[in-house]
Amino acid sequence: MFRLGQVAIRNGQRLNAIELRRCLSAAPKAQKRQESRPAATDDDKKPNMSFLTNIFRGEVQPSQVFPYPEVLDADQKEYIAAFVDPVNRFFEEVNDPVKNDTTASIDEATSDALWELGAFSLQVPPEHGGLGLNNTQYSRMCDIIGGQDLGLGICIGAHQSIGFKGILLYGTKEQKEKYQPKVSTGKIYAAFALTEPSSGSDAGSIRCRAVKTPDGKHFVLNGSKIWISNGGIADIMTVFAQTEIEDPRTGQKKDKVTAFIVERGFGGVTSGPPENKMGIKCSNTAEVYFEDCKIPIENVLGGEGNGFKVAMNILNNGRFGMAATLSGTMRVCIQKATEHATNRVQFGRKLETYGGIQEKLARMAMHHYATQSMAYMISGNMDSGSTDYHLEAAISKVFASESAWYVCDETIQILGGMGFMKDAGVERFMRDLRIFRIFEGTNDILRLFVALTGIQYAGSHLKELQKALKYPAANLGLIFKEGSRRAIRSIGYGGTDLTPFVADQLKDASKHCSECIDIFGQAVESLLIKHGKNIVEEQFVLNRLADAAIDTYAMAVVLSRASRAVHKDLPSAEHEVLMAQAWCHEAADRVRVNIRKINSDSFVKNCGKMSQISKNICAHNGIAHNNPLDID
Question: Which of 53, 296, 534, 564 could serve as 68's disulfide partner, Cβ 3.0–4.6 Å?
Fold first, then answer.
């Protein structure tokens, strides 16, 4: 439901409880047990290794944060390093981002050079014509592209990060052998077709329908998709449609989403003209229409009725790449701002000597550092075999897109009037950046996804404890562990301690993060007790909870990376420590403020007022107050 929000929350309205529960249902659920059976012990089920998920219980699972992941061996580092110079030369000598933006297209010479570089097959296995990069190596390429041309980056990303990613993740051996060479070396573009006129963030409500033929050999697809990146140029698409699925046990039939690999050559596939967009203009965005498109049964992707899961996992799997890409954009913005600040003289002094400018540059650098650290931490975890990274990936997308917007905006402010001019190259970044808070899951929806998924995990623990108390003899370990933890914390001891995981210079900073984990877990438990299942209706609260989670994760990530710099005695270690210390100080303050609001009756009352103001505006179709002259 939180889909590719290539649209914002539907019609600008808040999602209702039914839609939120669909979002919540996409998260992993604890296995249901019969009430008559004792609760399972911790050893009976696989633990969730996600750092972020566990802080919703006020607990720390450090393995995916500390130490900072180092997943590339010497050969892998050498392999990816060999691509850096050719890719940089391509952007310096071949690609013209200003021309791409002006013409709203990528010329044939540029496209051909990209295909020759292997830019459209970065993660495809070599046996199928690709470069075979892992996620960490892919992040390095995204970083370069993001600092040069975001529109061109969308064309590349729409092709492989989501376009044919489903084939990489879910394709059968035959599907991979047939399609991966085509999208790698055959100059055939791919696209991801999910969004429809009536379903943006609510992916479960799509209306495209595929009906199985009587002989069971084909599906016939009808419907349309909107705002599809590469939609006008793609010959291979991952398409999602409603299909009728029969329950083998009950015989009951109901509609479920199924994913298909659709070729334009199947017939019945047409596209509209390219959309006229605010930014990322050179990327092709178009409507796609399906009229009696006949799809072979062997082109079902991931199994009939599993399309929603396929779509969500494609998006989850690719979100880290957005953080890596936008860290590249921030890097270039900061370079432009710094160059101006160190050369521009006003009132007899260089801009860099003024405290106001210093604060801007420092905060911009910290946002970049946290974003880049998230990108490589998540990609490193994925390359290490982690499957518990979905909340972290969602947070990285939210954090990166908002940080990049902030950094770009501050760059324009530092450059002053020059930054407002096209020649500075920053206004194009700003126009391009705006879409990143909308597509591949709107930030609004992802905040709710993070909060509700984490709350569900915390709630399952409380249910487990409640059931354990019904059968104390069989669950003494769990009961004593939880009882001791609560008793010790009630007198101010036994809280989270991250000092063993960080460098000596960062032990004080780590206490900020530790405290935030403790108060965060307590706030979640209080909310569950207070609201129960109705928590899905408390979006004002959920948004603050998500923001607190984002800041807490960002603290842990920068502490880990800066500790790595100290332990490896890197030349940048002292600078990284300063950034981590400053970031933790400010982030912890934000967490405390958000937690206080969540626990405040006055905040709840004010939320009620905000809700009523919104209702008044909607009832008047806009502004609900008169102008100061009281004249219509």
Answer: 564
| CA 44 vs CA 34, 38, 152: distances in Å | 15, 12, 48
CA distance 14 to 10: 8
Q: Are strands 345-346 and 269-271 parallel, antiparallel or unpaired?
A: unpaired
Report how far residue 280's alpha carbon sits from residue 325's, in angstroms, rounded to the nearest whole number: 14
Q: Which residues of 343-356 are buried (b: 16+ CB within 10 A; e: fewer)?
A: ebeeeeeebeeeee
* pLDDT value for 1: 27
Nearest Cα to Cα of residue 175 among 63, 260, 65: 260
Residues 445/201, Cβ–Cβ less than 8 Å: yes
Q: Are 320 and 196 in contact (CB under 8 A)?
A: no
* Cα 125 → chain centroid: 25
User: Cβ atoms within 10 A of the Cβ of 292, count?
Assistant: 10
**Selected catalytic residue, list 196, 275, 402, 440:** 440
Q: Rounded to whole angstroms, how far apart are CA atoms 38 and 41?
A: 9
pLDDT tens digit sequence for 517-543 = 999 999 999 999 899 889 999 999 999
| Residue 130 to residue 182: CA distance in whole angstroms | 10
Give kind and range of the element (H or E) at residue 336: helix 307-343
Count of H-run helices and E-run strands, the chain: 20, 10
What count of residues does the chain have? 632
How, if at all, do strands 236-246 and 190-193 pair?
parallel
CA angle 469, 470, 475 (to 5 degrees): 55
- Among 185-199, 283-297, 574-588, the least confident range: 185-199
Helix (H, G, I), strand (E, B) or coil at 598: helix
E-only strand ranges, 30-153: none
Residue 251, pLDDT above cutoff 90: no
Instruction: Please state, in angstroms and as integers, the Cα–Cα distance from residue 609 to each residue in 81, 602, 603, 604, following that order.
Output: 56, 11, 10, 9
Contact by Cβ (8 Å): 121, 130: yes
Phi, psi of 160, rounded to the nearest 5 degrees: -115, -30
Q: Which two tokens stand for residue 99?
A: 């021309």
Crossing angle between the packed helical segments 108-117 and 150-157, to the nearest 10 degrees: 60
Instruction: Report d(CA 326, CA 178) in Å as an integer.
Output: 33
Q: Which neighbouring-strand residues pair with 317?
A: none
CA–CA separation, 611 and 620 (whole Å): 15
pLDDT, tens digit, 9 for 90 and up, residues 14-63: 334 444 444 444 443 433 333 333 344 443 468 899 999 999 999 999 99
> Which residue is associated with the tokens 């590249």?
328
CA 245-246-250 angle, to 5 degrees, is 150
Q: How many CB atoms lie within 10 A of CB 358?
A: 13
Distances (CA, A) of 49 to 52, 57, 67, 402: 9, 13, 14, 27
Q: What's at 261, amino acid-wise?
A: I
Answering whether pTM is above 0.70, one says yes
Is 538 known to be catalytic? no
Q: Where does 471-506 have alpha helices with state H?
A: 476-490
| Nearby residues of 252 by Cβ (< 8 Å), 6 or more positions away | 246
